[in-house]
Each structure stands twice: as structure tokens, then as C-alpha cells.
Amino acid sequence: MQAYQYEKDKRYTYEDYSKWDDSERWELIDGVPYAMAPAPSQFHQEASVEMLTQIHAYLKGKACKVFHAPFDVRLNAEDGDDTIVQPDLLIVCDQSKLDGKCCKGAPDMAVEILSPSTSSYDKLQKFNAYLRAGVREYWIVDPIDRTINVYLLRDGEYYARVYGETDDVPVSVLSGLSINAGDVFPGEEEPKMEEAEQTAVE
């Protein structure tokens, strides 16, 4: 399969993105393509599955839905449509944003589980993209430090609180649900690795 030939200095939209016949996964931030990391580690997968399981069980019979990557989120679908991300987990309560293929607009909550190759990207580019789009709650889950950083949107800014592996972490967009961090970070710690910077294709 031939990889798409990206043009330097061009800014892409969902229309372009949807036509790419590529074996790699991509995201767009302000029209700039970012190649996604290789397959996630065991620790990343364990954290993702545990959180998905807890959230899915809570949402049975409720209107909100939880999805896991890969699932496209068109953060600014009505204004440029040039920022498409695939959070590790997301919660959508407004069913009108779901069109059978993707989420059009900001989800209520996005969760990113850090990998060494995407850490700075999740903390900077995606953090700012979620903030601009108005995502009400953004979690950054760190399997190495065994922490969960929770960012809640108030008056156009994110306010942070950090939770450790012994904490129950409340999900603000879902009243009554808390995630047991001890179950998210079970067993041995993930070995520390040198962080690699996520790079844009420009």
C-alpha cells in the first residue's frame, strides 16, 4: 500500500484525511498531520481496558456512550474541520454528535494514556486542541508515574487536579462514578523509558 504524499506547508481537512489510503493511523491538529505511535504497550492496554470496563458498566442503560480508539473525533467539524483526533477513550452524551462513523464536535470527556512516544504531544498539542474545542473534562493517565491528571473546564480554562494510584478518581461528567486508580495501575510498574517527541509531518 502506497503511503499518502503529504505536501509541506499545506493544511489538511477531514475531507483530505478521509481519503487517505494508508496503513498508518494519523491525527490532524490545526490541519497538520501527526503520525500515531506504534501499538501501545501492555501497561497502556491494561489501563485502557480497565477504565473502559468501569465506565461501560456504569453507563449501561444511560444516554451517554463510551468509545475507545481508534474512533475519529472531528473537534471543529463546523469550523474548519481540520482537527481530527482519536482519544484512547471518550464519552459522548449528546447523541446528535454521533453520525455512525465519528463524533462531530467536542466529546464530554477525553482520556489519553501516555506512551513515551506521545507524551509531549498529549500534554501540549492535544491538550490545547481539547481546550479550544470545549471538552469539559480531559484526563491524562500516566502508567509510568502511576498518576491521573484531571483537567476540568471552567470559564474557558482547564483547572487541574492530580490523583495517585491509591485514589478513587471522580468522573465529573458522570455524576456518581469514580474510577479506582488502583485497578487502572495494577501489578508491576511500567519500566521508565526515554521520552521520544511526537513529530508533525510538515
User: CATH superfamily membership, which one?
Assistant: tt1808, chain A
Q: How much of the residues is beta strand, in percent?
A: 25-35%
The end-to-end distance, rounded to whole angstroms, is: 21 Å
* CATH architecture designation: Alpha-Beta Complex
The average pLDDT value, as a whole number, equals: 89
Q: How are the strands of the biggest sheet laid out side by side? A: 3-6-8-9-10-11
Helix segment count? Answer: 5
Could you give the order of the helices and strands?
A: HEEHEEEEEEHHEEEEEH
Explain the overall architecture:
The chain is an alpha+beta fold. It has a single domain, classed as tt1808, chain A, CATH 3.90.1570.10. The protein is 20% helix and 27% strand. The strands form 4 sheets. It has a 6-stranded mixed β-sheet with strand order 3-6-8-9-10-11, with helices on both faces. A hairpin with a 2-residue loop joins strand 10 and strand 11. The longest helix is centred in the N-terminal third of the chain and has 18 residues. About 2% of the residues have low confidence.
What is the topology?
Layout: H1 14-17, E1 26-29, E2 32-35, H2 42-59, E3 65-68, E4 73-74, E5 84-85, E6 89-92, E7 103-104, E8 109-113, H3 119-123, H4 125-133, E9 137-142, E10 147-154, E11 157-163, E12 168-170, E13 178-180, H5 181-184
Parallel strand pairs: 4-7, 8-9
Antiparallel strand pairs: 1-2, 3-6, 4-5, 6-8, 9-10, 10-11, 12-13
Features:
13 strands, 5 helices, globular, 6-stranded mixed beta sheet, alpha+beta, 202 residues, tt1808, chain A
